[in-house]
Design a protein that fits this description.
This protein has 279 residues and is of the alpha/beta class. The chain has 11 helices and 7 strands. It has a domain of 194 residues: TIM Barrel (Alpha-Beta Barrel), CATH 3.20.20. The chain is globular, with a radius of gyration of 18 Å.
Length: 279
């Protein structure tokens, strides 16, 4: 879930609540608060937990909320995980530690320490394009042996495959159906902000034994996926949300608004997808 900001660059809690409801009414089964798309890297701990509280208050106790609580500092991650647990998160998204480049033993110790501080499920997040460190399938299988490590958000498409003991979730939109084909259970996606009903239909058709229909829907969305990758996420998404009148575009530096060329790519893809551009 994207994080809306107001004109002063502060978290817009009212807009976040509105966006959360919109997403749940347009195909999403649950939400990730303070993840990559939510610009967690530039949110303070207090802002992350405040955002989680606002969303929980809006959507009620039954909506499934995952909160990003992983950092490159294990002590920090433990504190954030405990706070998210207390604030009502149903699960935690724990990214591979970035910048300090731990080895496999360090990653395993990091995840185990975080998992030990909560009874809630842990979703480990493998995204080597941002963290520079990859969690190989063998390491992921070891992490699955930790009691409450329950799922994997896999954003390394080359290694997308089943991991015994983990629910595998597509980390990139363009492999959503492929993830289902290898036995995955869904995806944590970006385009669901915009084409949530279509992505939900992909999932439902696949589960209903109609994979060819799911692939056909996916093929129709590929131009939009490409447009949402014209530059770094969430810049194209925030631009698209504003164009559609769903959410404002402002981001925190170093994220910046789309330039005119990028904006035209996104606008054209939205119109080609039959979406009404209002701004």
């Amino acid at each position: 879930m994207a994080t809306p900001f107001d004109g002063e660059g502060e978290v817009d809690h009212a807009a976040a609540a509105k966006l959360a409801t919109y997403l749940l009414e347009h195909g999403s089964d649950g939400l990730v608060v303070a993840g990559t798309t939510g610009e967690a890297a530039t949110l303070t701990d207090e802002e992350q937990i405040g955002l989680l509280r606002s969303v929980r208050a809006e959507v009620g106790p039954d909506a499934f909320l995952i909160c990003g609580s992983g950092t490159n500092d294990t002590r920090h991650s433990i504190g954030l995980t405990k706070a998210a647990d207390e604030a009502g998160a149903d699960a935690m998204l724990v990214v591979t530690p970035y910048y300090n480049k731990p080895n496999a033993a360090g990653i395993k110790a990091h995840v185990a320490a975080i998992a030990a501080c909560t009874d809630k499920p842990i979703v480990v997040y493998n995204i080597p394009s941002r963290t520079v460190v990859n969690m190989a399938p063998g390491l992921l299988a070891e992490l699955a042996e930790i009691d409450n490590v329950a799922a994997l958000k896999q954003a390394n498409d080359a290694e997308l495959g089943p991991i015994e003991g983990l629910d595998v979730l597509a980390g990139n939109d363009n492999v959503f159906v492929r993830c289902l084909e290898i036995g995955g259970t869904g995806g944590i996606t970006v385009a669901s902000h915009i084409v949530g009903p279509q992505m939900a239909a992909m999932y439902e058709r696949f589960r209903a034994g109609e994979p060819e229909v799911a692939r056909e829907i996916e093929a129709g969305l590929e131009p939009l996926y490409e447009a949402l990758a014209v530059t770094t996420n969430p810049m194209p998404l925030k631009g698209a949300l504003q164009m559609l009148g769903i959410c404002s575009e402002p981001m925190r530096l170093p994220m910046v608004p789309l330039d005119e060329g990028q904006r035209e790519v996104v606008r054209s893809a939205l119109e080609a997808a039959g979406l009404e551009v209002v701004a």
